[in-house]
Structures
1.
Amino acid sequence: MTALVLYACSHVGASQREGFVDELQSACDALATEIERHGCVANPGGPDYPTYASAMLLVAAEKLELRLDERQRQRLLDYLVESQIDQGEGYAPDAADFGGWDLEGGSDGPRKSTGTNISVGAMVSEALALRSNDQEKAALELYRVWLGKCQSLPGDGGFFFHAQRDHDGNKAGWAADADRDDLTRPLSYGSATSDGLRGLNACGEDPQSEQFRAGVRWFRTRSVFDRVPGFESSADNSWSEGLLYYYWYALAKSMEVMPRELQPTMAAQIRRELLGRQSAEGFWQNSSPRMREDDPLIATSFAIIALAILDESQWSD
């Protein structure tokens, strides 16, 4: 939670952060206390979402120019690279999870992945893209290939959550015209497709590539902002509401790779939704507990990032 809030604060302007320098550094110091022991961001009792938290701290420390010594930064980078699912974890290059990241993080040898997913990969790739050393470049190249396993190509060009196509975490379900036991065609949806574009951008993919263009095309026919698109045929529509703040955040993070003609409308729609949902006390909160966005710290962090990115002067016509 501390890593997410600090990451959110790193997106707002310097004038808005003025007066909070000590608090931001204090948060960084708290997150760094277990790096020497665990090699990652961790609680005293052990890691908790270590891939997310370590990547968020790296990005926040860079953006906020916080005191995080070079040894600690390198430990975190090494941890993220070592956490990538590859031969070290006992996976062959043709395995679905090969090249991605899961929630579990690093290990000392072969292990069974909990399922590499596009959300944690988007966050880790953003952190690795801060450096241009060989190990980070190699990890991003593996991840670029992994992203292709989560994209509906041939198909609608959107992205789904897990490279394991039959994974229950592919939230929008599977193609309706498939046999009931055929779980090879997961349906793509808005937040995952946003994360797919974020990941491609972090990997340095050519915006004119078919992967990029297909992902952007997915949004051209799905200009929906009051819910997460892609769940229209799903039997469980609670995802469409439960992922809402994450969707706005992820879509804002992918805005720079959207075609210029789409940016003003998309930015204005997201701002309208967020400004209309802010509480009188200043925070945001999802009515759905599906993805813990009913916790104001989580929903507010996503809202702050989206609003900071979608500053009106940058994305207006």
Note: Residues 281 and 296 are 11 Å apart (CA to CA).
2.
Amino acid sequence: MGSSSSNGRLPPGPPFPVAIQTAIWFRRAQWLMAQCAARYGETFTLRILHEGTWLMLSNPVHVREVLTGPPHIFHAGEANRILLPVLGEHSVLLLDGSAHMEQRKLLLPPFHGQRMQRYGELMTEVAATEIERWPRGTPYRLRPRMQALTLQIILRAVFGLEEGQRLDRLFSELRHLLDLITNPRILLVPVLMGPERLARFGPFQRYIRRVDGPIYEEIARRREASDLAERDDILSLLLAARHEDGTPMSDRELRDELMTLLVAGHETTANALAWAIERLVHNPHKLERLTAEVSAGETAYLDAVIAETLRLRPVISIIGRRLTEPIEFAGWSLPAGVTLAPSVFLVHRRPDIYPDPERFEPERFLDNPPGTYTWIPFGGGVRRCLGGSFAQFEMRAVLAELVRRRRLAPARPEPERVYRRAITETPRRDAEVVIA
């Protein structure tokens, strides 16, 4: 795997204690990666509390080796343990090996291309209703509104519910939980506790139970539905799915996968949409071109805007694979337990792949489609994000609806800095705009 030569050591990295590296990582991850890359090169080591040793990578050759490496050695589920307290142990994101592949097969049908077209109508309808509520002529923060919009879409796609009390309750409890766990002021608690202890922590469990209640109620109600076979919402499709031994998914499995879809399926997309708007309003000629082409019914530039937003402002900064056995990799002898971590942020900023990488330039994707191992906002290989196509489809629908209906300008002249919330990167002022 990689070069056969080895110096028997891990690559260099910052000399700070683990606690300091952890504190910097959870507040300014992208800054830390940029500083380390400038000092140590394209491969370096970080040490993070409860995570162990990370080997940070930004060479596309190494990225490809990680993303296509044998899944029994490169464990993604283990590397995602930070998500355990919210998603649960049956989440496809936390499984490895055959358990992961079996669960992934059960989750694939709802994201089939034909179904995506039906979700498209829902996305456009929800976006239009939301956009019409926004005030005009005054500074307005769009990231919270994108969170509301994408949560509404994923809840309706997952549960097949129309607007009403049941949908409102699910929305309220899930948003309450996510606001709690992404609040930078209280992030220190889960960082210090680690995922295993936090999952058992009484006060945190109470928040989880408040979300679990309505989810389990919907599962029970749907199991009894007489029209289950005719429904095409994600919950109904999962209830009809069968494991390889013919057994249905348990309530706990369903809960964990539904929570995975709800959390991963809206928070990241909302932040990506907020970044797209932030970049567009600070590059008005790009916004003008997008508006003109969408008005003309063309989508090529819209897709390029989405690809460039996800390149320049990736919401998730790294991909992780924990080694289950020692290997030789890129000239290094690596012990079991080390996490190989392709840096989405650093790969997307390589000037040899993306000239003038800090510039927002959707045109770079018009004639050059994103590369499999050089454009990795959704990961890759057998672990590529199940909802990646759904997210891009949703961004397309929402942005198109927005530029058709409204004119946007930045609330302030200076671009927004990157602000870290839990494991996601967001605009510092929540994509503040003035709507006309």
Note: DSSP finds 18 helices and twelve strands in the chain.
3.
Amino acid sequence: MNRSPLISIITITYNAEETLERTIKSIIGQEYTNIEYIVIDGASTDQTCEIIRRYNHHIAFWTSEPDQGLYHAMNKGLEKATGDYVWFMNAGDEIFEKQTLKRVFEEVPFADVYYGDTVMTNIQGELIGNRRLSPPESLTWKSFRRGMLVSHQSFIAARKLVVPYNLKYKFSADFEWCLVALKNATSIKNTQLTLSRFLDGGITKKNIVPGLKERFKIMCQYYGLPTTLIMHFPIAIKFTFFLLRNKRF
């Protein structure tokens, strides 16, 4: 193909007046311009919708209405997406730099999945440090036996490969979503780039225990109980060392 891929970037918001604008600016400021931008708001009661309206001319579709939670809203975004690729960049998260998407598609314009690294920020947008888990040099669906090695915010998937988020999971449906996309993929590209700035303290971190329980169930489903149990020993050790060294997880 000679054309540039169309990428649907989807932002989920709810009462995000403090963080949304920097997310929007990081997307509309990309040097890569073949972007379909979609915003799904969960009936915010603060100034979120006013911020969205301010950038309306950059947005292909947006809505503000009640939903059944984060992953239900993300499914709404998927339903509206028409791009070759989908990328979720939720309120508070940012594309790492303005050249990021241009660099992603420079070498291999139509891989099935692109992935990269992630840095963590606080609510003021200040850098906290690197994510606890680092992306491997080579990634397959089996790599997630060692945990979610790639952040959802640094995972770009061909729309034809993805499925709706499984709404029976409240905190870890993104883990299964990425895993399934990897399982369906034939070409997976390590961009060797930092792709996103991830706002620390989201829904998963605030619900760490139920989220880990869900992830354990997902891993058992795809990898089997014995493998999941065995792989959790090094996961637990690495988690503990990171927590002790960095005072965060």
Note: The two ends are 42 Å apart (CA to CA).
4.
Amino acid sequence: MKKQIKDHAKIKTLLRPCPICGSGKGEVLHTQKFLMPQQYYSLPSAYDVVACVKCGFTYADTDASQQDYDRYYQLNSIYEDEKTGRCSEHSEYNRKRIAEIVRDVMRTCPDKTAKIIEIGCAGGNILKALKSEGYTDLTGVEPSAKCVAHILSCGITGVQGTVSAASRLLGGKKFDYVILSHVAEHIYDLRETLYSCADLMDEGAMLYVEVPDAARYTEFYVDP
């Protein structure tokens, strides 16, 4: 369904075309500003959150590159601290969210020997929960070296890298189940990411994608 644009909406020419349909026009929903310490390199100190006027896809209209964001998540990860990180299992909210994901995986992939990979796995809490349920072939890919070290210490295969490099880093291994939990919203090039996921997937494999509900941000302290 084509998005209906309100008369008073602010329409702009986008810094980057819509990742879904390629349209060059978007409705500005919100301008997000950041405090950007110097070590965050060339990430912008602000960007518009926009909705494509053609297909309605909502995303950050930023002039940073995928390489800029890859470097940020490699060197300045907010997921490294086991107790206070954004995906910390010490958070009641995250424990419930992880439990729901694990139930979904178990329902759609009951084979405990299935080859499962999580891209952007942070400290590996989803993978650890799957291991506790008896899954035996688990792999995590994560830009942060500290997160990967933690995954390895838990007896789970961990590889430092991004989704675009995952297939090469893993020697072309194919998987039965690919998990992207709260990852797609951090990705600049969605089309290339889907191609990269396809490279990891065996015939008949499943792709699990979970993203925050952008329409409900004001209702939650953390990502809904």
Note: Strands lie at 11-13, 25-33, 46-52, 58-61, 115-119, 137-142, 157-160, 175-181, 201-210.
